[in-house]
From TrEMBL, chains A, B:
Cofactors that this protein relies on: Zn(2+)
Organism: Orbilia brochopaga
A Pfam cross-reference name: dCMP_cyt_deam_1
Subunit description: Homodimer.
Top-level taxon in the UniProt lineage: Eukaryota
Gene Ontology BP terms: cytidine metabolic process; cytosine metabolic process; pyrimidine-containing compound salvage
Catalysed reactions listed for this entry: cytosine + H2O + H(+) = uracil + NH4(+)
Domain CMP/dCMP-type deaminase per the UniProt entry, residue ranges: 4-122
Name of this chain's protein: Cytosine deaminase
Record carries keyword Nucleus: yes
Keyword 4Fe-4S: no
PROSITE patterns on file: CYT_DCMP_DEAMINASES_1, CYT_DCMP_DEAMINASES_2
EC number(s) on file: 3.5.4.1
Role summary: Catalyzes the hydrolytic deamination of cytosine to uracil or 5-methylcytosine to thymine. Is involved in the pyrimidine salvage pathway, which allows the cell to utilize cytosine for pyrimidine nucleotide synthesis.
Amino acid sequence: MATDDDRKFMKIALEEAQKGYDEGGIPIGSVLVSSTGEILGRGHNMRIQKGSATLHAEISALENAGRLPAMRYRDATIYTTLSPCTMCTGAILLYGIPRVVIGENRTFLGAEDWLAAKGVQVINLDDESCYGLMQMFVKERPGDWNEDIGEEAKAV
Amino acid sequence: MATDDDRKFMKIALEEAQKGYDEGGIPIGSVLVSSTGEILGRGHNMRIQKGSATLHAEISALENAGRLPAMRYRDATIYTTLSPCTMCTGAILLYGIPRVVIGENRTFLGAEDWLAAKGVQVINLDDESCYGLMQMFVKERPGDWNEDIGEEAKAV
């Protein structure tokens, strides 16, 4: 079940997404938070800004958290404004993060079934602000979006 | 089936792994190669060197390849000296890379079952040089190795 804290941290993830959009990037944000509410790392998608094929929002948040001992991930929650792709899902499973809170999965449905199969708790807030920002971006720049999810550019 | 080219490119992945070891890092290397034999990206694990939780060898190779259109991945082969973890497997699936050549999976067995389930061709060379380098490292620095795969440090 979503808590007030979940909505608070999703707002921070959305701030990251907005920062990405303002930089001309893909507006997806993420925050890694300990069970005591400490922000361990936050970040946003850097494909455009850094010419990066791997710095999705979740990967950026994990990267910005730096090197952590395994136990630090084991009671953490990762917030992401958009349902995580297979790479980000794999990273969540690698570090044994037990709880994922998602802004929305209407724009893109990632590997939530893998998370569920491994016993990770997945909470979808179906947040209109997360959805609205992504929808605006996808309409504005479908080529950049498709590239980010490994798809060929489609006619619009 | 492994080809002469596969052995040639695994040698380059192993050079990357050795470079990582010489830098004081975790000795895993990777190369992304097009179907015409063009090296699109190469790299090695950077956990120690960059304090990075996400720059595994395969992620480094993808990152160093930069932004590529989807079609560039679709006939490529990724070489990695060690069986890919869930994160790297997820990245391979994200970009639809159809073929993975692995140095060895005795030190660590990654998510090869996910690759197979998605129709990705997985070839294990069971290379003694890849295995020997990793075994030496794991014995020397088990803490760094366990941290990299999201495990608690174990007594040795």
